[in-house]
Amino acid sequence: MKIKESLLELFESNKGIFLSGENIAKNLGCSRTAVWKAVKALQSDGYSIDAVPNKGYLLSAETDILSSQGIRKYLSPLCRSRLEITVLPSVNSTNAYLQENIGSGIKDGYTVLAHRQTNGKGRIGRSFFSPPDTGVYMSLLLRPENYSAEQAMQITTIASVAACEAIETVSEHTASIKWVNDVYIGKKKVSGILTEASFALENKLLDYAILGIGFNAYPPEEGFPSELDDIVCSVFEKRVADGKNRLAAAFLNCFMKYYTAQNHEDYIEKYRKRSLVLGKSIFVYKRGLPATAKAIEVSSGSDVSMGLPARALDIDNHGGLIVRYEDGSIETLSTGEISIRLQTAHPVV
Fold it and tell me: Each residue of 37-65: pLDDT tens digit?
């Protein structure tokens, strides 16, 4: 580990406490000049570090910069032992970054976060708004053994529950889930999840999955774009000390707890209780759905799709949504096929 990274780890473990240059040098096995250079480099990265004669260096307790060192100090023993964490200044998308590096030997549990995404990925080809330094944008590489397609569906379900619990761990908000992958505070979306998977041709079992999740940690300085302002929100209303690191760690702790558990019924029941759609009238819409007597043109902003009116009945043990259409037929909807809207959108006249 480089001196700069080692120093940041030391600072993160002693945030708000003065550390003498001499003791830091002994701890890191380097010269005091090397310590000074590392401090300057961290300050250039935006860290608020005070240098006071006869006292030493102090990392401000109010610092809120996403880092692997800042995240790891909040991780459970399970996560510390299983996860390798990398934080990058900017990527096109954290999911795409992992996809591009699959062949480089990265292992199960490899986790990448970015301060900014230039082309964040959402479901069904949509983008995910990812401004710099206001969100937590993260992807995990998962290689569970002998996972079927049905089991792979559970990854998104687990992540949704974990996202809700993480938000409630670090804030005073209550979070809920709009099937299948959107997390809400009140009536506004605060987090989105995208799971991409690769299956072996010979046995149809999961080769690997990439779980991507994005949180709006803070409102952007200039506010959300006008087209998003009425439909999205953030976990925190204003900057809080270590907010992003605590949020990232809380999600990883909750996700890995369920992901590694033998009994999955616990999180499924929690998913059901947090559902925004169960018992509600909804529109189910699929790409390419033909205009029939049963389909209704549903408009939400600039997004217009052919939707089938239905009622959300239940969520099965694999995370599938069981719906009943107006003709009485029942279908279980699986991830990746469809999206839904509550019947608050008005049919186009």
Answer: 999 999 999 999 999 999 999 999 999 99
Cβ-proximal residues to 157 (8 Å cutoff; 6+ apart), any chain = 180, 267, 268, 271, 318, 319
Cβ atoms of 250 and 169 within 8 Å: the answer is: yes
Residue with the bigger pLDDT between 221 and 288: it is 221
What are residue 160's phi and psi, to 5 degrees?
A: -65, -45
pLDDT level of residue 226 (50, 70, 90 thresholds): confident
In terms of residue numbers, what domain contains 307? 281-342
For residues 176, 178, 179 and 181, what is the CA-based torsion angle, rounded to 10 degrees? -80
How do 281-285 and 206-216 pair as beta strands?
unpaired
Which among 274, 290, 321 is the end of a domain?
A: 274
The 10s digit of each residue's pLDDT in 240-299 is: 999 999 999 999 999 999 999 866 667 899 999 999 999 999 888 766 554 443 554 444
Number of domains in the chain: 3
| Pair (285, 203) in one structural domain | no
Q: Give CA 289 to chain center in angstroms.
A: 30
> Cα–Cα distance between 305 and 296 in angstroms, integer?
8
